[in-house]
Q: What sequence folds into this?
């Protein structure tokens, strides 16, 4: 089963919750950090790195001998990565979205696939519950590279496809293309929010964005107690299950500031995380068996 | 005109609460044009209550749409699409709008010319009045692509309006991360104020977003929020900033007044003075007196 | 015969020079020998998510200009103009198109050897 931990608002506790789940998960597991712009999961899970490889986007490389400056590639490109200026075909590698259209179109075979570095993919393993070794993947976007989905797709392509291992995905915040890319292939989506006006507003956006995907959807109210009860009220009105309420505590905040996994050092968090894990599994299993299970 | 963008790298450090307070303080001086550039999950309006005097539709990018009447189900489009956006079907293929990149490959190569290429209606933007001054803000429809184009449009509108109103300052609430929307937010900015927190994530993300600012030659000042959550980490961050040439504008204590203000739809500087609000006022004074000299041979785009 | 293109906020010689290149509203194209002028709308660049500078360079090249007068030109636009053999004069701002043309005719401008703006610098 693939579980994506997401949120509308940033800073609600996605990584905290993902790290805590990863620490108590008692089945074969792979944890993935798909927040490739600002990956943080590794700071808490402390994985041993086995490989770090550059991820490349396939961009066009020009053979000037073959190019007749016909301009078909430039006229086709939607992203202005190619331009005929004077007696030159200019190729702007950083503009390319990797669609392969120009490579397919060129009548002279003058364009071949090269690469622009999107960032790096790190793979390894970390210590999970009961001393078991769990898999770990993360993408780290090159600073200055504008788009995260291409790198996210390459990380996702490396994930194990076996039915017996679970996958936990730490998603980027927001509800636009990066977040959508992280959750779209999950079997179950967990939305982490906080009980404040910002948390509620952005939770509504997340529900609007992800509900149409038709996956079981549950809410975790993190830092419960710091604001009001409107988030819980919204969930009731929307028939959205609140799968955990994690009360605010200075102890948890300080553990986080020390880079410690809350479920490992704060007993109440461990208990709450185990209960969350059970709710997630129930929801995913019920959905798998044909029922749509949102409670 | 001076342009200040408040960003963070990591989400949830307090960008919006800080920007709202700065908007309040600026309104007590020469005023500012306000901008919420987090078009994905905007929150500034929850504190500033803009009146949405103007609403405009935002259209950007294109998507492929297969006409089932013309589709011969040959499967070529599915084979060519690099984004997994084409869904095979029993009678015709269809395009998953969420995955479509707008590259036009399928449109171009479809032997039956069955695929149209239509502009996407992806959001709305507003020009508003608030109690602190004029504001432009937007909302991308959930799930849409955030290429930075809407951010760029908001900035353009804000600049033009600020110019015609004679406002000397543009103050922007930015988005988290380091991708297209943040890059777009930073373009032409005179100063980036990075709000961070003394946690491993806060530190890690501060370094990345500061590097992005350096990449685009934008001067940086840093505010450490919730500094007393871990004073050792805060000291480490301060040391890092000093060595890197990023002045610290302020250290803000962890205070539930931030949420209290949010619940009242106010900014912290509108409530009775607190250690948090006083530290924030101090930060604003330092920001006001900072001259945004670009640390590079490139000429700054931004002119006062 | 010298054809110059000046980034402009409007179609008239009395309009102000637009300091942006890629997202300029348009170009006033002037034949400095005959003083004939025309206007090239740059709206198709303004609406692009990316690549406005490159599109604007294509627009200028298509108009037959040999020199561009503008405020700030980014690296991709600069590269595109250079490939087409179009000279670039930068840092032109706070004056009308007519004033810029006058300064150019009197030889008061120098041609740039590199871009003066950041990449993706003026999406606004």
A:
């Amino acid at each position: 089963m693939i579980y994506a931990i997401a949120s509308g608002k940033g800073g609600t506790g996605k990584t905290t919750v993902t790290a805590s789940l990863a620490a108590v998960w008692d089945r074969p597991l792979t944890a993935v950090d798909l927040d490739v712009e600002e990956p943080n999961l590794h700071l808490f899970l402390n994985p041993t790195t086995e490989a770090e490889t550059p991820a490349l986007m396939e961009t066009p490389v020009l053979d000037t001998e073959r190019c007749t400056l016909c301009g078909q590639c430039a006229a086709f490109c939607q992203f202005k990565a190619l331009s005929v200026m004077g007696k030159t075909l200019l190729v702007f590698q950083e503009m390319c979205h990797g669609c392969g259209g120009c490579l397919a179109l060129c009548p002279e075979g003058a364009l071949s696939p090269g690469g622009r570095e999107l960032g790096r993919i790190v793979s390894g393993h970390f210590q999970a519950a009961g001393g078991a070794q769990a898999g770990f993947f993360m993408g780290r976007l090159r600073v200055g590279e504008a788009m995260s989905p291409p790198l996210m797709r390459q990380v996702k392509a490396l994930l194990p496809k076996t039915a017996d291992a679970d996958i936990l995905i730490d998603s980027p915040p927001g509800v636009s293309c990066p977040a959508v890319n992280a959750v779209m292939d999950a079997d179950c989506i967990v939305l982490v929010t906080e009980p404040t006006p910002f948390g509620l507003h952005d939770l509504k956006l997340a529900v609007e964005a992800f509900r149409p995907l038709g996956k079981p959807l549950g809410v975790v109210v993190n830092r419960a107690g710091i604001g009001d009860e409107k988030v819980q009220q919204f969930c009731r009105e929307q028939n959205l299950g609140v799968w955990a309420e994690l009360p605010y505590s200075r102890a948890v905040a300080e553990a986080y500031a020390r880079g410690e996994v809350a479920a490992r050092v704060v007993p109440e968090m461990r208990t709450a995380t185990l209960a969350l894990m059970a709710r997630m599994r129930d929801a995913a299993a019920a959905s798998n068996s044909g029922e749509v299970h949102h409670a | 005109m001076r342009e200040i963008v408040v960003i963070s790298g990591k989400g949830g450090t307090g960008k919006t609460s800080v920007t709202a307070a700065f908007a309040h303080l600026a309104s007590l001086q020469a005023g500012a044009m306000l901008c919420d550039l987090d078009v994905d999950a905007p929150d500034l309006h929850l504190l500033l209550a803009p009146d949405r005097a103007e609403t405009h539709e935002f259209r950007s990018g294109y998507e492929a749409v297969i006409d089932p009447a013309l589709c011969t189900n040959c499967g070529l489009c599915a084979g060519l699409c690099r984004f997994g956006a084409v869904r095979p079907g029993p009678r015709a293929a269809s395009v998953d709008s969420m995955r479509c990149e707008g590259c036009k490959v399928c449109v171009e190569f479809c032997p039956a010319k069955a695929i149209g290429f239509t502009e996407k209606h992806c959001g709305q933007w507003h020009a508003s009045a608030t109690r602190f001054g004029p504001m432009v803000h937007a909302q991308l429809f959930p799930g849409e692509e955030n290429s930075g184009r809407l951010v760029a449009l908001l900035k353009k509108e804000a600049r033009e309006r600020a110019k015609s109103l004679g406002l000397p300052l543009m103050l922007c609430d930015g988005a988290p991360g380091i991708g297209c929307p943040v890059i777009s937010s930073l373009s032409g900015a005179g100063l980036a104020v990075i709000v961070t927190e003394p946690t491993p994530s806060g530190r890690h993300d501060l370094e990345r977003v500061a590097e992005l600012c350096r990449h685009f030659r934008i001067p940086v000042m840093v505010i450490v929020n919730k500094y007393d959550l871990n004073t050792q980490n805060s000291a480490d961050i301060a040391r890092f900033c000093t060595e890197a040439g990023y002045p610290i504008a302020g250290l803000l204590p962890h205070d539930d007044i931030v949420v209290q203000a949010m619940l009242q739809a106010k900014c912290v500087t509108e409530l009775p003075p607190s250690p948090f609000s006083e530290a924030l006022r101090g930060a604003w004074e330092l920001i006001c007196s900072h001259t945004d000299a670009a640390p590079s041979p490139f000429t700054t785009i931004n002119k006062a | 015969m010298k054809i110059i293109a000046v980034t402009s906020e409007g179609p008239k010689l009395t309009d102000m020079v637009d300091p942006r290149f890629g997202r300029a509203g348009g170009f006033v194209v002037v034949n400095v020998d005959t003083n004939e002028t025309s206007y090239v709308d740059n709206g198709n660049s303004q609406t692009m998510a990316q690549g406005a500078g490159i599109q604007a360079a294509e627009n200028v090249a298509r108009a037959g200009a040999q020199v561009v007068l503008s405020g700030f030109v980014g690296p991709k636009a600069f590269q595109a103009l250079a490939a087409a053999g179009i000279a670039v004069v930068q840092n032109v701002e706070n004056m009308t198109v007519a004033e810029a043309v006058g300064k150019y005719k009197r030889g008061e401008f120098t041609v740039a050897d590199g871009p003066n703006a950041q990449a993706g610098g003026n999406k606004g």
Q: What stands out?
A: Chain C touches chain A through 18 residues (CB under 8 Å). Chain C has one domain: 3-105. The domain at 3-105 of chain C is CATH 3.30.420.130 (Nucleotidyltransferase; domain 5). The mean pLDDT of chain C is 89.
